[in-house]
Input
Amino acid sequence: MVIGFIALAVFLFLGLDADQASPSPSFSAASGGVKITYGSVIKLMHEKTKFRLHSHDVPYGSGSGQQSVTGFPGVDDANSYWVVRLQPGTPAKQGDSITNGTIIRLQHMRTRKWLHSHLHASPISGNLEVSCFGGESESDTGDYWRLMIEGNEKTWKQDQRVRLQHVDTGGYLHSHDKKYQRIAGGQQEICGVRDKRADNVWMAAEGVYLPVTEMK
Ligand SMILES: *[C@@H]1O[C@H](CO)[C@@H](O)[C@H](O)[C@H]1NC(C)=O
Output
């Protein structure tokens, strides 16, 4: 009787598991070597300062007046999650790995707006402004970023050093220890800078990494 019950429980457990339509994502802190795929939800860490790329429903008080993007000092903030999305019309699909040179879009998870840049001046340093703009069905080429992996690996993985180059302006996603004083006190400026510098290197840190889909 007891054995029968256990067998049933095991059956139900396996049955439930097999019913899941999609592979279960793995939460991962810093295990390294995990591939970043389309649909993964990640935090991007600025290598030099360890601040996370962040946005929130607060507009810039200068430049475009669009939703502001900052560098955030804490690790645990839900406004630092970004969904790695495709360029519209690309043949790739959710779960595909991403190779060097690919153009991606980063969608801010909470507000559904896209990481965006353009020729407006950034608030503190007067470089290229980086904002969040558009929405689920509203996106343009100002949301396109080219993945550039440092080192020899061709496929994007967690903990790799990468740069993101904005396609329209050529600016690299950049941060530095220039901090906001008032509304976003303690947070630092994010902007675009056209020179390759040590301050435009990023790494995928915490996130929900969708496993790579198997080739059939
Ligand atoms: C990625 O591509 C860029 C040019 O787009 C190149 O400079 C860099 O060396 C490449 N990285 C790898 C790992 O192949």
